[in-house]
Design goal:
Length: 355
């Protein structure tokens, strides 16, 4: 197959829709063509990548560089499984590698490289499980809330009737306590149920949301916290409930502040992912908001339960902030992922941007 035929194939069969990264290299390992998945994997745009040596975009320490030369020299395809890959930006991936030489003279051969990210497939599987778990939990919480709120209403009503019959002002203190505690429990149940079901969607700019949250947190911190920004200005507006998104981002940033404390550093970074799978569904464009802090990290035993209600590593916390944030993300068709090591914890809010 000639290289020109591959480019025609790309146009005709929409290689940009593939989750597999496809790269066409010439005999000198310069990039002649690549699809959107390969752009995401290499963390570079096609306009920047085309014509560039592959070594400018991938760290030369990658162990499969000799395989590229061997496949071209032998004019023979090869497959390698679970190969580590490191980008020039230092991002580490694990990929299945398929190399297919395209016939021609030695100096004019091309090499078709297919990269299937194993760790991304594993992440998709985890995301689907998380999505299903959240949906199941939501139904359970609805049932529990219904069963709890009904008797609470009865207790409150009985306390009010009792207060009217006692006739002793000194005893009314106790009925007041009963009523106030019932109200507190009903408020807690409502918070556990999370945000309202119906979204009030309108064109929303994610940077307006993050800047609003940044101003709120900086005002509360009174100079005791540093917040850095790394925004992608190309991110378009997309339909979302700005109020609910603000609440979700505020919960995440406040959680990061609690983790790193006064004197800590929080980084807000936005990026756009193309042909990206969220919750088992592939989307053309996905907004990724990364909220990182330099705190001590999340204990390993807490990570799997982090988005469950009432689970918290903070003695003063309610354990509802992250649960509510995840539910808001789910309502928008997205989800929140977390990666944590000591000194570097990152919550990533993924939001589909289809309009």
């Amino acid at each position: 197959m000639a290289a020109e035929s591959l480019m025609d194939l790309s146009a005709d069969y929409h290689l940009d829709l593939l989750a597999t990264g496809v790269i066409l290299l010439d005999a000198h390992l310069h990039i002649r063509e690549l699809n959107l998945s390969a752009e995401n994997l290499l963390e570079v745009s096609a306009s920047r990548a085309l014509g560039s040596p592959l070594e400018e975009l991938l760290d030369e320490s990658n162990e499969w560089y000799p395989l590229l030369h061997q496949a071209l020299a032998d004019n023979y395809p090869m497959v390698r499984r679970a190969i580590p890959l490191t980008t020039r930006m230092g991002q580490e991936r694990t990929v299945d590698l398929t190399l297919s030489p395209i016939a021609g003279k030695v100096d004019s051969r091309c090499l078709l490289v297919e990269l299937t990210m194993i760790d991304r497939l594993q992440a998709i599987s985890r995301d689907e499980s998380e999505w299903q778990a959240q949906a199941t939990l939501k139904e359970i919480m609805k049932g529990v809330a219904h069963e709890v709120k009904n008797p609470l209403g009865g207790i409150r009503g009985a306390a009010q009737l009792l207060a009217g019959e006692l006739g002793n002002p000194n005893l009314q203190e106790y009925t007041d306590i009963i009523i106030s505690e019932v109200d507190r429990l009903r408020t807690l149940v409502d918070r556990m149920l999370g945000p309202k079901e119906r979204l009030e969607s309108e064109p929303t700019n994610i940077h307006e949301v993050t800047e609003h949250v940044r101003h709120l947190i900086e005002a509360e911190a009174k100079g005791g916290l540093s917040i850095e920004r790394d925004y992608d200005p190309s991110l378009p507006d997309f339909l979302a409930d700005a109020g609910q998104l603000t609440q979700a981002v505020l919960n995440l940033v406040r959680n990061a502040w609690q983790a790193c404390g006064d004197g800590g550093l929080i980084t807000l970074k936005t990026r756009v992912y193309r042909q990206f799978t969220v919750g088992g569904n592939q989307h053309k464009l996905v907004c990724a908001l990364h909220i990182s802090d330099n705190g001590p990290g999340v204990p390993d035993d807490l990570l799997p339960m982090l988005f469950l209600p009432m689970v918290t590593g903070n003695a003063k916390g309610t354990g509802l902030g992250l649960s509510i944030a995840q539910r808001i993300a789910n309502q928008h068709g997205g989800l929140i992922q977390v990666h944590s090591t000591p000194g570097d914890t990152c919550f990533t809010l993924l939001l589909p941007m289809e309009t």
